[in-house]
Design goal:
alpha/beta; 6-stranded mixed β-sheet; 14 helices
């Protein structure tokens, strides 16, 4: 664990398996290493290990990578990340671990946070970590995943699932969404947004992976809901009716609702609530506004309404969220408090 002047970084160990996808292996390194506090100190230490002694690990491409840490590194992790692999063998085919992989996972300490990207979830499921829990994986593997692991509650429509100490993501780029979510959960929206800007990706994607499943091509020059969304974002503090948004696109409410869900992945009402929650988070972190004023400026109307929505979305009250993630007061070990806080 890296310690600098009493400052303790969260240690993330990424498990590199044969057949790994280099893109997904690089996601944790890229996202977590960019997260810094107000003094410019990195908040995470990221290392990569293999299930074998240090040496080459074959990728799904025409090259291997040299991994300098063996499985013992897993014992030092605060968080373990398992990216996808195309060569999981009996893990993918039968839902059981190889002896080598089981021995490697045995190094993980109880209480370590576990994260899987894409089909990396097969490893966690085969090890029993997902029994009775909600999880996701790439949409193309979801049915197979559910058949192989019937005790897992598979949600094939989302980009990632956060079940506290175990988190799983859908395919490929959704690993970026999940890692940004973890930074946001650990250290707040401001730091996560800074990482997203540096990575040139959106800090939060609306909808789920269902929107990326192949569908018939849309009609040429088909109207979209982009204008209505931009209009609504500029008026989050005001009451916004569905018919008002539909009018921005000169559509009927029924047509607008269908198009909106096709493009964004959620209903207009769900999307508005998501944007208001994000607005409230930003104001709670970066301003001295009272909770009542934040509720009005975010469009919730009352503090009680905002409290209910933040509890539903984040599991915390506005006061607890502000106390944890206030910009300038952020500690290296900041985390989301329990739902009964504040």
């Amino acid at each position: 664990m890296a310690v600098v002047e009493g400052f303790r970084r969260h240690r993330i160990v990424v498990l590199a398996l044969d057949g790994l996808l280099p893109f997904e292996l690089g996601i944790p390194q890229r996202i977590f290493r960019l997260a810094k506090d107000s003094r410019g100190r990195r908040l995470y230490e990221v290392v990569t290990c293999s299930v074998r002694p240090p040496g080459p690990v074959q990728t799904d491409g025409d090259y291997a990578i040299l991994v300098e840490n063996g499985p013992e590194a897993l014992a030092t992790a605060d968080t373990v990340v398992v990216p996808a692999s195309y060569e999981l063998g009996p893990v993918y085919e039968q839902g059981v671990l190889t002896d080598e992989l089981a021995a490697a996972l045995a190094h993980i300490r109880p209480g370590t946070r576990l994260v899987a990207i894409c089909t990396g979830g097969y490893v966690l499921a085969a090890a029993g970590y997902l029994d009775g829990r909600p999880a996701t994986t790439h949409w193309a593997s979801a049915e197979h995943f559910q058949r192989l692991f019937p005790r897992v509650r598979v949600d094939a429509d989302v980009l990632f699932v956060d079940d506290g100490d175990v988190l799983t993501s859908a395919g490929v780029a959704s690993g970026i969404d999940l890692c940004l979510h973890i930074v946001r959960r650990d250290h707040g929206t401001a730091i996560a947004n800074d990482v997203a800007r540096r990575t040139v990706v959106p800090p939060h994607r609306d909808g789920g992976q269902a929107q990326y499943i192949q569908r018939p091509l849309p009609e040429p020059q088909r109207a979209t809901t982009t204008t209505a969304r931009a209009w609504a974002l500029g008026r989050l503090h005001e009451p916004i009716q569905l018919r008002d948004m539909a009018e921005q696109e000169s559509m009927s409410v029924r047509t607008f609702t269908r198009r909106f869900r096709e493009e964004v992945g959620v209903s207009p009402g769900q999307w508005l609530t998501q944007q208001r929650v994000e607005r409230a988070r930003h104001l709670l972190e970066s301003t001295d506004l009272s909770v009542d004023q934040v509720a009005r400026d975010a469009g919730f109307g009352t503090a009680q309404s905002m409290r209910q929505h933040l509890q539903g979305a984040l599991g915390v009250t506005p006061t607890a969220y502000r106390r944890t993630f206030r910009v300038g007061d952020l500690g290296a070990g900041a985390r989301v408090p329990s739902a009964d806080g504040g």
